[in-house]
Amino acid sequence: MILEVAPLRIRPGQEAEFEGAFLVAQKFISSMPGYLSHELQRCIERPNEYILLVRWSSLEAHEVGFRQSAQYQEWKRLLHHFYDPFPVVSHYREVHSAAAL
Fold first, then answer.
1. For 38, which of 32, 44, 54, 92 could close a Cys bridge (C-beta 3.0–4.6 Å)?
2. Secondary structure (DSSP) of the chain
3. Which CATH number applies to 2-82?
């Protein structure tokens, strides 16, 4: 499993519009082969900052399968104009984990 981490800074005043567009856009990413789950979280201290976490079965599922798809073009059309600056996306592989008891 690969965790995609995308810190998103949204243009101030466009947070509600971004969240609405994300509700539509998430259907495109969640329909992709290799997609496992995602979550969008909003920063409490800086309300125009979000973090998008997407779990993929492999790096290729994201980098090739999604990013080279027609679904990505729709994702891009719906969301990319909200970002300032454009996010740097990173991918992580689990080393250790624990669940709350």
1. 54
2. -EEEEEEEEBPTT-HHHHHHHHHHHHHHHHTSTTEEEEEEEE-SSSTTEEEEEEEES-HHIIIIIITTSHHHHHHHHHHGGGBSSPPPPEEEE-S------
3. 3.30.70.100
